[in-house]
Task: inverse folding
C-alpha cells in the first residue's frame, strides 16, 4: 500500500510541476520582471534617498519582503488555479476515481504550489544579488519560514480552489485580499514606523508575522518576536490543512 | 463464478430532493458483457457515479469483486476502470502523459506505465499521436484515449458510459471489436449506450433501469424472446396489381414497400409462401426497428433512449 501511495504522490507532483513549467512564461517570468522593477525603482531610485531602515540600507531591508511576496503569490496562485482548472475541466475525476487518499491528493497539489513558490523566491533572490549583497543571520530560520509560508499559502490556494465556482472566484481573493495584505504586511516598511493605531491593526495581518520572521532570518531583526511568527505559521498550517482535508473528504464541490 | 459487481438496495437522493435511485439490486458476473440501459435521467449515470466514487450514495451497499466500497475502497477502486461520458482529461497534456499519470495514480511504476502506454496506445491506434496535446485530437481519438487511460492499471471490471457517442460507424465497429477482444481476454464489461443495436450485438446480459428502479435484469436472449411481434419491411421488385396476406397485419407503405407484422407463433415462412403464390417477388427485407429498441420502448413506456 505504501508503494501505491508513493507512486501516486510522485505522479501527481510530477504532473503539477510539469503544469507550471509548461507555461513558464506565465508562471516564472512575471515575478522576476516585477521584482527587478521593484529593486530598480524602490531600491535604487527611491531607496537611495530613504536612507537606512533598522540599521540596514533600504535595499537590504526590502529584499526579504520581496522574496516572500513572490513565494506567497506564486504558491497561492499555483494551487488555486491548478485545482480549480482541474475541477473545471473535470480531470480532477482522474484522481477521485483512483485509489488515492485525500492526504496524497493534497500533498501532490501542495508540493506543486510550494515548488513554484520556492522557485519564484529563488529567482528573486538571484536578481537581488545584482543589486545588493545578502547577509543571512540564520539559515535555519530562513528555510523554516519560507517553507512554512509557502505551505500556508498553498493550502490557502487549495481552499480557494475548492470553493471557487468560476475563474472570477479564483482571481477575486488574490486581488482583493492577498495583494493588499501582502503590501500592508511590511514588504517595504517596518511596522514600527506606523502610527500606533495602524501598528495595532497590522497585528491582525498574518503576513506581517511571516515577513517579519523571514526578515529576522536574513537581518537578525524583525517587527515581531520570532516565536510569534513561528506559532502563527504553525497555527495556519494546522487550521487550513484540517479544513481542506475535511472538505475534500466530504467531496465539497467535487462529488454530488 | 465470482461476482464482479454486486449492488444491494442502492439509494440516492440528491440535495434538491430528486430521488435518483430507489433501492437498486444488481449483480454482474465475472467475464460478463453487460448492458445497462434506460431513458435519460433514469439513474444509469448515478449508479456509475457511485461505483466510481464520484457520487455519494444515500444508502445501500456496493461490492466490486467482493471488495466493499465502504470498507475496502482502495482494493475496490483498483478493480475498476471507468470511461466516462464526457471528456475529462487535461487537453493541454500529451496523450502519453495522460495515460502514464493515470497509471501512476493506481500505483503502476513509471517504467511499467511507459511499457503499458505503448501497448494500449498501439492497440487503440493512438501511438502516432502519443506526443500530441490531447485537445488536438479528433472526437473519435479522444474517446479512444479515454479507453486507453482506463485500461492502464489493467482493471478486472471496465465500465463504459456511452463510449461510442458521436463516433463514426467505422470507428464504432473497430471499438466493438476491441471491446469484444478484451472481454474475451477476461475483463468484465458494463456498457451504457445510446445505440441499442450496439448493446444487442455486444452484450450477453442486460439491465433496464427506469425512474430509479431496475425493471428488467436478464440475459439478452431471454429479453429478446419476450418480443412477441416483430415488424419487417419488405422491398418488392415491382408494384403488385393486387396483394392479399391472410393472417398477417400488413400495409403497403408505397408501391414497392410492404410493412408486415409477424407474431412469434406465426413465423414469416407462410407470408413468403403467400406472396410467392401471387407472383410477388421480394428483393430485400429488414427489421423496421432494432429488436431491442422495440422492447425497450415498450418496457420504458417512451421513445426516448439512452
Result:
Amino acid at each position: 500500500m505504501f508503494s501505491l501511495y508513493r507512486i501516486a504522490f510522485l505522479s501527481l507532483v510530477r504532473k503539477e510541476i510539469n503544469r507550471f513549467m509548461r507555461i513558464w512564461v506565465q508562471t516564472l517570468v512575471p515575478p522576476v520582471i516585477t521584482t527587478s522593477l521593484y529593486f530598480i525603482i524602490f531600491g535604487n531610485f527611491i531607496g537611495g534617498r530613504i536612507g537606512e531602515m533598522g540599521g540596514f540600507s533600504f535595499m537590504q531591508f526590502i529584499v526579504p519582503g520581496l522574496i516572500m511576496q513572490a513565494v506567497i503569490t506564486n504558491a497561492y496562485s499555483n494551487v488555486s488555479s491548478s485545482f480549480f482548472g482541474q475541477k473545471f475541466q473535470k480531470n480532477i475525476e482522474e484522481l477521485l476515481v483512483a485509489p488515492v487518499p485525500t492526504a496524497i491528493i493534497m500533498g501532490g497539489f501542495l508540493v506543486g504550489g510550494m515548488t513554484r513558490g520556492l522557485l519564484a523566491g529563488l529567482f528573486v533572490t538571484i536578481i537581488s544579488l545584482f543589486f545588493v549583497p545578502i547577509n543571512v543571520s540564520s539559515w535555519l530560520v530562513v528555510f523554516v519560514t519560507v517553507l512554512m509560508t509557502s505551505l500556508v499559502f498553498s493550502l490557502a490556494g487549495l481552499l480557494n480552489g475548492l470553493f471557487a465556482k468560476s475563474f472570477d472566484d479564483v482571481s477575486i481573493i488574490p486581488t482583493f485580499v492577498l495583494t493588499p495584505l501582502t503590501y500592508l504586511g511590511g514588504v517595504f516598511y517596518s511596522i514600527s514606523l506606523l502610527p500606533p493605531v495602524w501598528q495595532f491593526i497590522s497585528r491582525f495581518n498574518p503576513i506581517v508575522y511571516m515577513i517579519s520572521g523571514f526578515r529576522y532570518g536574513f537581518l537578525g531583526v524583525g517587527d515581531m518576536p520570532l516565536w510569534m511568527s513561528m506559532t502563527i505559521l504553525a497555527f495556519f498550517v494546522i487550521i487550513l490543512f484540517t479544513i481542506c482535508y475535511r472538505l475534500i473528504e466530504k467531496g465539497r464541490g467535487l462529488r454530488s | 463464478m465470482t461476482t464482479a459487481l454486486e449492488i444491494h438496495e442502492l439509494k440516492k437522493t440528491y440535495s434538491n430532493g430528486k430521488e435518483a435511485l430507489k433501492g437498486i439490486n444488481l449483480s454482474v458476473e465475472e467475464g460478463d458483457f453487460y448492458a445497462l440501459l434506460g431513458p435519460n435521467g433514469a439513474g444509469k449515470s448515478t449508479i456509475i457515479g457511485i461505483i466510481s466514487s464520484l457520487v455519494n450514495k444515500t444508502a445501500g451497499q456496493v461490492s466490486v469483486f467482493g471488495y466493499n466500497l465502504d470498507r475496502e475502497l482502495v482494493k475496490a477502486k483498483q478493480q475498476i476502470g471507468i470511461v466516462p461520458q464526457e471528456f475529462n482529461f487535461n487537453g493541454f497534456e500529451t496523450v502519453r502523459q495522460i495515460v502514464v499519470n493515470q497509471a501512476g495514480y493506481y500505483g503502476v511504476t513509471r517504467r511499467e506505465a511507459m511499457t503499458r502506454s505503448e501497448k494500449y496506445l498501439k492497440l487503440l491506434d493512438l501511438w502516432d499521436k502519443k506526443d500530441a496535446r490531447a485537445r488536438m485530437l479528433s472526437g473519435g481519438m479522444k474517446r479512444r484515449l479515454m479507453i486507453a487511460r482506463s485500461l492502464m492499471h489493467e482493471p478486472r471490471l471496465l465500465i463504459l458510459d456511452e463510449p461510442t457517442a458521436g463516433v463514426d460507424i467505422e470507428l464504432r465497429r473497430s471499438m466493438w471489436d476491441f471491446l469484444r477482444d478484451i472481454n474475451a481476454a477476461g475483463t468484465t464489461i458494463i456498457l451504457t449506450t445510446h445505440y441499442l443495436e450496439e448493446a444487442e450485438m455486444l452484450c450477453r446480459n442486460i439491465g433496464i433501469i427506469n425512474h430509479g428502479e431496475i425493471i428488467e435484469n436478464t440475459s439478452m436472449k431471454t429479453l429478446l424472446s419476450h418480443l412477441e411481434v416483430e415488424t419487417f419491411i419488405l422491398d418488392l421488385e415491382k408494384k403488385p396489381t393486387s396483394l392479399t396476406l391472410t393472417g398477417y397485419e400488413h400495409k403497403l407503405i408505397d408501391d414497392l414497400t410492404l410493412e408486415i407484422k409477424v407474431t412469434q407463433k406465426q413465423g414469416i415462412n407462410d407470408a413468403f409462401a403467400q406472396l410467392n403464390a401471387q407472383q410477388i417477388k421480394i428483393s430485400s427485407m429488414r427489421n423496421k426497428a432494432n429488436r431491442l429498441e422495440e422492447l425497450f420502448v415498450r418496457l420504458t413506456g417512451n421513445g426516448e433512449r439512452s
In short: The CA atoms of residues 107 and 206 of chain B lie 33 Å apart. The first strand of chain B starts at residue 3 and ends at 13.
